[in-house]
Amino acid sequence: MSVAARLAEGSRATLIVFQIDVVDIRTMRSMLAALGERRVAHERLIAVANRYHKRGALSLSDVRDALGDVPLVTVRNDYDSAVSAINRGQPLSKVAPRSVIRKDVGDLLRQIQLPAGVPVR
Q1: Long-range contacts of 92-95 (CB under 8 A, 24+ apart)
Q2: What's the pLDDT score for residue 55?
Q3: In terms of CB atoms within 10 Å, which of 14, 49, 69, 87 comes out highest?
Q4: Of the candidates 68, 99, 69, which has an alpha carbon nearest to the alpha carbon of residue 82?
Q5: 103 phi and psi, to 5 degrees?
Q6: Model pTM?
Q7: Closest CA to 21 of 68, 75, 63, 72
Q8: pLDDT tops 70 at residue 29
Q9: What is the arithmetic mean of pLDDT over 13-28?
Q10: How far apart are CA 21 and CA 35, in angstroms?
Q11: Residue 100: enclosing H or E segment and its boundaries?
Q12: CB 8 within 8 A of CB 36
C-alpha cells in the first residue's frame, strides 16, 4: 500500500476500478482508508464503478454513502461489445462504435485530461 500511495501522490488522478457489490465496496473502503492513512488526498482518487447497471441491488446513492467523499464515476455494462472487441482483437471504435462502454470511458478520459500547457510526467 505504501507504493500505491506514492504512485497516487505523484499522479494527477488514480483510478480505482470496482464492481458494485458488497465485496468490492468493502475492499474499496479498505483501500481508501489505507490511502487516507498515508495522506493521499481523495481528490486525486477516482472510484470507477465498472459494469454498472441501474437495476443493481445497490444504488449509486448507497455506493456514495459507503465510499465517502471520493469522486465516483460509472462505466455501464455492455458485455457483448467488450467481448466482441476482445475476441476480434480490435478496438471498440471499430467493433462497436456506439457502445456505451466506449462513451463512458471517453467521458472519463475527458474528465481527467490535463489542462493545456501542463507537462505529462
Answers
A1: none
A2: 82
A3: 49
A4: 99
A5: -65, -45
A6: 0.82
A7: 63
A8: yes
A9: 94
A10: 21
A11: helix 100-112
A12: no
Residue 92 three-state SS: helix
Handedness of CA 51, 68, 112, 23 (dihedral sign): negative
CA atoms within 13 A on the CB side of 87: 7
Alpha helix positions (H), 10-98: 22-37, 60-67, 79-88, 92-95
Q: If you average pLDDT over residues 38-65, what whole number do you get?
A: 89
User: What are 53-58's contacts with CB under 8 Å, separation 24+?
Assistant: 53/77, 56/20, 57/21, 58/20, 58/21, 58/22, 58/25
